[in-house]
């Protein structure tokens, strides 16, 4: 059976700095987007940095403590739509993940953004890592392995956010992704599959040309070959993307030829729990 678009596990409210305080981007607006599109599962994943974790360094984001993110509670619910509170967490340039073990237990779901290499001096030291594609690729690869080799993380409820975001290398994203060898990608995604971590799908398939798509699809096709499971995460910061989000998901599923068997187990469990 073809992969069913019944969820979106990456959404930001006005509480996230990335939404720039857009008062339209409320929990109610996100919920309405889910209802309109017939979803069964939504997640709110505002940026945050746990105040129980030292070495914040996240300019603007460190103000978003976990309690601050909980200001969106209670989230709207419906008989056929479950809306859960998650969070989007970074790892700084010292390998520190901004969510304490205590809060990892408290949240039923969160995503880790290893790819935010645009946060100068927080996730990357510009004196040590250049802005060119080759330097960014090696640094990104190292960060991915740092997360995947962390035995203390509850991978069964963690999503790997936007693997091919432009924030990896704003100067040359496609060149950067192209530098990953097939062997390197297999090593990364074999670990992801073994950990049971979800792989997020949200690249702008409807706006890339064929040449760009060929570059961007290769990691995800490798992930599929390695047995990874996928979830949909729009990463919306304001209401405008809601209009085309499902169309973009449809295109991704078509390009990757995804079936329901490719869906992340976490999504399946959450949807099965509807009405409990």
Describe the structure.
The protein has helices spanning 27-36, 66-69, 101-106, 133-148, 173-178, 182-195, 210-225, 245-256, 265-272; strands at 7-8, 41-44, 82-85, 88-90, 110-113, 158-160, 198-201, 229-232. The protein is of the alpha/beta class and 276 residues long. A five-stranded parallel β-sheet has the order 4-5-6-7-8, with helices on both faces. The chain has a three-stranded parallel β-sheet with strand order 1-2-3, with helices on both faces. Strand 1 (7-8), helix 1 (27-36) and strand 2 form a beta-alpha-beta unit. Helix 4 (133-148) runs parallel beside helix 6 (182-195) and helix 6 (182-195) crosses helix 7.
Widest sheet: strand ordering: 4-5-6-7-8
- The overall pLDDT, averaged over residues, is 95
Report the sheet-strand fraction. Answer: 5-15%
Total strands: the figure is 8
Query: Based on CA inertia axes, which overall geometry fits?
Result: globular
Euclidean distance between termini CA atoms: 26 Å
Q: In sequence order, what are the helices and strands, one letter per element?
A: EHEHEEHEHEHHEHEHH
Unreliable stretches covering 5 or more consecutive residues = none
Helical residues, percent: 25-40%
Computed CA radius of gyration, to the nearest angstrom: 18 Å
Give the helix/strand class. alpha/beta
Task: Describe the sheet with the most strands.
Answer: 5 strands, parallel
The helix tally amounts to 9
What's the SSE blueprint?
Layout: E1 7-8, H1 27-36, E2 41-44, H2 66-69, E3 82-85, E4 88-90, H3 101-106, E5 110-113, H4 133-148, E6 158-160, H5 173-178, H6 182-195, E7 198-201, H7 210-225, E8 229-232, H8 245-256, H9 265-272
Parallel strand pairs: 1-2, 2-3, 4-5, 5-6, 6-7, 7-8
């Amino acid at each position: 059976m073809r992969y069913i678009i019944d969820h979106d596990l990456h959404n930001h409210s006005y509480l996230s700095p990335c939404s720039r305080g857009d008062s339209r981007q409320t929990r109610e607006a996100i919920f309405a987007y889910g209802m309109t599109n017939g979803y069964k599962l939504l997640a709110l994943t505002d940026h945050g940095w746990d105040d129980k974790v030292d070495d914040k360094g996240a300019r603007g984001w460190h103000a978003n403590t976990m309690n601050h993110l909980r200001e969106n509670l209670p989230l709207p619910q419906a008989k056929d739509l479950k809306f859960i509170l998650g969070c989007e967490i970074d790892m700084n340039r010292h390998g520190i993940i901004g969510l304490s073990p205590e809060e990892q237990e408290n949240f039923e779901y969160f995503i880790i953004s290893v790819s935010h290499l645009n946060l100068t001096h927080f996730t990357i030291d510009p004196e040590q890592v250049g802005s060119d594609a080759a330097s960014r690729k090696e640094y990104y690869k190292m960060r991915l392995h740092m997360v995947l080799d962390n035995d203390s993380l509850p991978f069964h409820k963690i999503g790997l956010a936007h693997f091919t975001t432009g924030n990896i290398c704003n100067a040359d994203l496609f060149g950067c992704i192209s530098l990953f060898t097939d062997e390197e990608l297999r090593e990364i995604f074999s670990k992801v599959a073994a950990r049971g971590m979800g792989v997020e799908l949200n690249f702008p398939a409807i706006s890339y040309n064929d040449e760009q798509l060929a570059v961007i699809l290769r990691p995800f096709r490798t992930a599929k070959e390695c047995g990874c499971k996928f979830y949909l995460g729009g990463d919306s910061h304001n209401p405008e993307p809601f209009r085309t989000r499902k169309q973009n998901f449809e295109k991704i599923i078509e390009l990757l030829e995804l079936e329901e068997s490719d869906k992340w187990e976490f999504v399946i469990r959450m949807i099965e729990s509807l009405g409990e």
